[in-house]
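User: quick one, fold this
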Amino acid sequence: MTPPPQGASTAQATTRRGFLGLVGLTAAAGVLSGCSPPGTPRPGTGGATAAAGDQLKALTPTFVPFDAIKPDLPGTRSTLPGVPDISGGFSSYPADPVPALTRKAGRGGSYKAMTPLWGPPPPGLAANSYFQAVNADIGATLEFQITDGVTYVDKAVARLAARDIPDLMCIPNWEIDKMADFNKAVDQAFEDLTPYLQGDRVKAYPLLANIPTAAWQWSVWNGRLMGVPYPTEPFPYGLLYRKDLFDRHGWNQNPKTADELYRLGKEITDAKAKRWAFGDIHEMAWPIFKVPQEWRYEGGKLVHKYETPEWELMLEWMRKLFAEELIHPSVAGSKGANEKELIGAGQILVYRDGLGGWKELLQQHRPKNPGFALGVFPVFAHDGGTPIMYHNTAAGLFTFVRKGTPKAQVEELLSILDWCAAPYGTKEYELSNYGVKGRHFTLGSDGVPELTDLGTKEVAYTYGFLGGRPLYVDWPFPDATKANLAWQNATFPYIEKTPFDGIRIQRPGKYAGLQVPTEDKFTDIMRGRRPVSDARQIAAEWRRDGGDEARAFYLKVLRDNGRA
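Assistant:
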């Protein structure tokens, strides 16, 4: 799974206003079961609540591991509250995948599912033999409404506002964070899954029971289990680069300061050759400049990232990259440029993406270009000092069931999601990810699945989004698998501890709604449309419009949990 760039289209303001129509004048949602109230509700809190993970265990499904497949490459066991493990990986593809289930998952129903995709969409169900084969194995018909991942938040908000909700709807957590009223809308749009999955009830769905408990804790809204989570690896993203082209040109693959990265960009960029160093890497510039992940607690005060001197340093550096045209013009001139296409074409050489983007690009390009390779820069600090790296929460995407779905259909949909949650090394996983052997993929001389021309055309990551599973590095590329795990294990000691680690927080509505418009203003600074000196004014506007209210809420969360 690949987090997209931050930002939203200009249409988002309109769709966000429409989103308010869904939640209407409903009272603020209740506090999560078993936790202390966050205080007297204030304007703009928007149903905000908080609870430490151990307070949510009564709501979550019983964990029952699926032990038929075990990784042979080690990961890292996390001892940081709320921070996922590195689950390890596999050095080779299993020669004989095992069946995960012994019966059909579906009962003949027909459903629609909305999922994101960061890449070209495949043919629809009627013209796609991959979809047809998977549906036949499931025993039900899923028709995907595939939506561009870059603009997914706009489409999701618009559909929620119009009450045009499919049977299954995937929404990434980083998009939920931008939705000002999701805390209330979730109750009106989606089914409460607590009666189906809480405790031992999940054992009817053995592969959903294999999802780590921490991920389920992040699936609770308003005291109810509302979605099926997709667990995350610890890291939201890294700086990926075209290793094959770096090797060919002898470029530096281990920059140790922001200035070294800048100078690398100058060396790479050649507009006449249609080659630029970077996509919009500003989110990775945040940890490089040691900007806090969101809040920093110091001296008894909470300081937001927008208020730090590190934030201004980052803005100045990013502004230089844009001003000197080291960032691809399609990226600099829009919020919707497809950076995966650009790095695949060699028009950009470095971009910020989730580690899942590495796998997607290899699957797309290796069949026709066996030498295609990516790497990820080791983490570094702008001044050459000890680096920091951000971490994910335990779940990064959720699949919701449309509210009002009859009980029998909810059970069938959960059974389908159970099939979709089959882990690496199973027959169901193989079919979901590669299609039919001999038709959509073959095994290469190294035993690794290789998509055929038909598979490249028809197979898209769709069913995989619907069912979470422990996040082994399950890539069919041994070189990249080992490089990925080496980077993750080496980076784990640099994870920045945050004041709220392990606390499940539903963000105050006004605060969530501030993120996109505020960061649009900072984008104007980076792209030279406003002076850097405006950064403090923008931060003051953020405080006035809800940032200070949010600070009071978050400070109370710290005090309620004995952290302040």
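User: anything notable?
Assistant: The longest strand covers residues 110-117.
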